[in-house]
């Protein structure tokens, strides 16, 4: 991962995405890389003959995503002060894949483990794993405190892929 200069990280407010952001900030600091935190605002269309409920229009959703992203970046500590924050509109998977074109690595949170012990990724992570233009790191839930979740194994895998 020594050559990585731009890290894009998906943030949706979940504990997994906050762990992914912390991982990205930590690894960016070590490598003097730039982090772009992204919270994709997916606005669902309202039928033309209906009015959206008060406070649920596109501007309200965008504001919610901007607030969520600000709080997540602030929660990542003082090291995250220079993190670029983007709130694009669209489908999370396609938007993150598009942003991966200009990234050296895409970082996403994992959802945890299935009863059978298999690691489970969500639909957005699965979409990005199949289509991203750069290596993808999935940070497991609880990765911050987990002895095996410092990202070293994941980083090696991403580097080998590259």
Walkthrough of the structure:
The chain has helices at residues 15-31, 58-75, 92-99, 123-131, 152-161, and strands spanning 6-10, 34-38, 84-86, 105-109, 112-113, 119-120, 136-139. The protein has 162 residues and is α/β, with parallel strands linked by helices. The strands form two sheets. It has a five-stranded parallel β-sheet, sandwiched between helices. A two-stranded antiparallel sheet has the order 5-6. Residues 143-150 have low confidence and may be disordered. Belongs to the universal stress protein A family. This is Nucleotide-binding universal stress UspA family protein. InterPro entries: Rossmann-like_a/b/a_fold, Universal_stress_UspA, UspA. Pfam families: Usp.
What distinguishing features does this structure have?
Rossmann fold; alpha/beta; Rossmann-like_a/b/a_fold; globular; Nucleotide-binding universal stress UspA family protein; single chain; five-stranded parallel β-sheet; UspA; 162 residues
């Amino acid at each position: 991962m020594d050559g990585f200069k731009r890290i894009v990280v998906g943030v949706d407010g979940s504990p997994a995405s906050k762990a992914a952001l912390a991982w990205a900030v930590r690894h960016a600091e070590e490598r003097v890389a730039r982090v772009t935190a992204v919270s994709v605002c997916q606005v669902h269309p309202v039928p033309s003959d209906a009015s959206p409920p008060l406070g649920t229009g596109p501007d309200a959703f965008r504001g919610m995503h901007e607030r969520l992203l600000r709080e997540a970046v602030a929660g990542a500590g003082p090291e995250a002060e220079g993190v670029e924050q983007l709130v694009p509109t669209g489908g999370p998977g396609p938007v993150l894949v598009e942003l991966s074109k200009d990234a050296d690595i895409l970082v996403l949170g994992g959802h945890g483990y299935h009863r059978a012990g298999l690691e489970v990724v969500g639909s957005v992570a699965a979409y990005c794993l199949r289509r991203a233009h750069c290596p993808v790191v999935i940070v497991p839930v609880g990765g911050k405190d987990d002895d095996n979740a410092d990202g070293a194994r994941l980083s090696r895998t991403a580097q080998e892929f590259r």
